[in-house]
Amino acid sequence: MPFAILFPGQGAQFRGMGADVFHRYPGLTRFACDVLGYDLVALCRDDPDGLLSHTEYTQPALYTVNALHTFERAHREERRADCYLGHSLGEYNALLAAGVFDFETGLRLVRRRGELMAAASGGGMAAVMDTPEERLREILAQDGVAGIDVAGYNTDTQLVIAGPSDALQDAQAALRRRDVRCVPLRVSAPFHSRYMEPARAAFEEFLGQFAFAEPTTPVIANVTGRPYEKGAIVRTLSEQLVAPVRWTDSIRGLLTHDTPLECEEVGGRSLLRMVDGIRASSPSFSPA
């Protein structure tokens, strides 16, 4: 039975996260605070200024907490994964777990990624429920809504769209007129869309400063829904900023194995619920 470990991304953060692991890894925690230049523990524990929901703070905080949970898991000698997957930001924890880079390198990468993504503005994202992509595009075309990208394929019943503020508002209005449920996401920019191209270019240049190993365990890439290709770390991580998160393809590819898929999520259950939804819409596959 293949065993996958999943890492959540932005949106999984909450006040009080990390309380169960910070004290167990005081050296790494202090090191993270030094690299970031602020008290990460206070940010996660108290969030006194409401900064935990800001992209440039969310990403290094969640990466660090996910990493400490992963180290704790290894310390307890729990079952080793056959593959790793992360949703958006979570992919960095998957790559860390697979030995592509060390904790410090990953922290520096997500800090810069968060800064670049936070600098983008003028748009947003929304989750669209129970509407296939073909029907979504048909609705937008019928109402003359342009400039919208599909930014995520979370399950067969949930897509994520992204675009400039005006276009996104028009898209949501068009969907509501047809009684399609559309939920705005609390983000500051149209992530995983063409509008992140300036951030992609800057991040690709930044990535070029680092050396990366090949994964010791397969990591499924958001960009392709397939395992990372050899020598493709820089290209894939930079492309991730402008490409949709192909989570449905990622999970469905694992469901094609002859034996049932078993999954464990680090720090939550939101991704497991997505897996359950994808599995339920794939009746030819045996349940785990």
UniProtKB/TrEMBL annotation:
Top-level division of the source organism's lineage: Bacteria
Gene3D superfamilies: Malonyl-CoA ACP transacylase, ACP-binding, Malonyl-Coenzyme A Acyl Carrier Protein, domain 2
Acyltransferase listed as a keyword: yes
Name of the featured protein: Malonyl CoA-acyl carrier protein transacylase
Family annotation (SUPFAM superfamilies): FabD/lysophospholipase-like (SSF52151), Probable ACP-binding domain of malonyl-CoA ACP transacylase (SSF55048)
Gene from which the chain derives: fabD
Alphabetical list of SMART domains matching this protein: PKS_AT
A GO molecular-function annotation: [acyl-carrier-protein] S-malonyltransferase activity
Organism, as annotated: Streptomyces morookaense
